[in-house]
Design brief:
about 70 residues, 2 helices, mainly alpha
């Protein structure tokens, strides 16, 4: 069974939201931005960029199949 790139896009978007949430929770607990908060933001950024790539790939596949 093949999994659609759009499903992976939503999965990576969800993981990005979770890491942003963790970063802000860490900021609230510590009162300042520390290394772990920045690491969470960096991982979230990577997840959002990967999700964007999967959404774009899904659109390209749909466009190719419609031709």
């Amino acid at each position: 069974m093949k999994v659609s790139p759009t499903i992976f896009g939503f999965l990576f978007s969800f993981m990005g939201v979770v890491f942003v949430f963790l970063a802000f929770r860490r900021f609230e607990d510590m009162g300042e931005w520390d290394f772990l908060s920045y690491l969470f933001v960096a991982v979230a950024t990577y997840d959002f960029l990967t999700a964007f790539r999967f959404f774009r790939l899904g659109a390209l596949i749909r466009k190719k199949n419609n031709k």
